Amino acid sequence: MYYYIFEQPKSKHERAAFEKIREVARDFGIYGEITQASPARSADELVMIAINKKYSTIVAIGDDAHVNAIISRIIKSDPDYNLALGIVATDPNSILYDRWGFKTAEEACETLKNRKLTKFSLGLVEPDHYFISSITILPPKPTRVLFEVDHWKAEAVIDRAEISNNLYILLERSINERSTLKNAYNWLVGKSSNKTDQSIFKGKIIRVDSSDPIPVYIGSKAIKQTPISIYRKLNALKIITKRDKISLEKITS
Amino acid sequence: MKQDQVGTIVGSSVHLTGAIKDSSDITIFGSVEGEVISDAKVIIEESAYVKGPVTAREVILSGFVNGTVNAKDRLELNTNGSIKGNIDTTELLIHSGATFIGKCTMPDKRSNESGPTEENFEAEVDEDKLQTSTEDEGEDEKEE
């Protein structure tokens, strides 16, 4: 049985899209208990209810922060039975949308019905924030940050840092063109004078520290401030994924 | 981030200390104090400074390295590249304008072809010696 946890809709369009998913789920024969997170009843509480009722599939429908909150609660609850998670990512600009975004409600419900399960690793921001997408470290102004990763340390001034669930680290720093002449030329030809300096690392354990506390986000929700420690929890959760599409070329070859 | 295809990139605003290892490519624009090890390629860009040994299958160097460079297959030292340390490689390409102060060790391919015994060819490049040899050549010309 499926237990649906919808995010509180942010717009009329989203409300209509959620309604459509409910209708199509009924048509596909995967209708279950429908709930919606709200200030009165958080996604956290709804997950606890689902686990107490021993639902085998919880479906999270919403943005990255909503999905990650549900994941976090499932892992912390450590259910004593086989529980799978279905995801319908609704924010087209989010990381989760790449894998769990659907063009139509029919496509989403077909994926949920097929129930192809894959184990996923999760990132953990100590003490108890699990995430499947990524966390973002976003200082209000360029700030010097220290990253301690496995056997090395890196010091960098950053505008933004992103750490994925597989503990890939992306650091970004915008660099302005110093030459006034070049700036003027870029302005004339309509080119930007800013370049982005990027660094990419990977690790198994990461500690992030800074002289002033910097907010750390999952999606749009601030969860902590630096210093933070991040770990990886391997194959932590079974999640429903899209079926592989077999191309015509593969069939004919 | 397309995670599977990306190796390690040390940006120009990063100062890294400690041993950095990757099975994929490592590209350095910033500064590294410690060992750099890759199973694939290490690219040290013009803005980069590395203090420590570099080990990889292939090394392409346009920045500065203070330490030994061990490139199993190939080492390319570009025009602005500089190595202060020893080199151990099979194939070496040094572009005009590059600086290399140290000892180079390469396997002798000819002796490999003729038999199982392998002697290493060693070439020592030293700035002082280079200057001396140029002066000698000048004297020869005068005598002619």
What can you see in these coordinates?
- The complex is a heterodimer of chains A (253) and B (144).
- Chain A has 253 residues and is of the alpha+beta class.
- Chain A has two domains: 2-121 and 235-245, Rossmann fold (3-Layer(aba) Sandwich); 134-234, Tumour Suppressor Smad4 (Sandwich), CATH 2.60.200.
- Chain A contains seven helices and 16 strands.
- In chain A, strands 1, 2, 3, 4, 5, 6, 8, 9, 13 and 16 form a ten-stranded mixed β-sheet that branches.
- The model of chain A has no long low-confidence stretch (mean pLDDT 87).
- Chain B has a domain at 8-103.
- Chain B contains two helices and 16 strands.
- Chain B has a 16-stranded mixed β-sheet that branches.
- Chain B is globular.
- The N and C termini of chain B lie far apart (66 Å).
- The chains are: A alpha+beta (253), B alpha/beta (144).
- The interface between A and B is medium-sized, with 23 and 22 residues.
- Strand 9 (152-158) of chain A pairs antiparallel with strand 2 of chain B.
Which overall shape of chain A is indicated by the principal axes computed on the Cα atoms? globular
Low-confidence spans of chain A: none
Helix content of chain A: 25-40%
Number of helices of chain A: 7
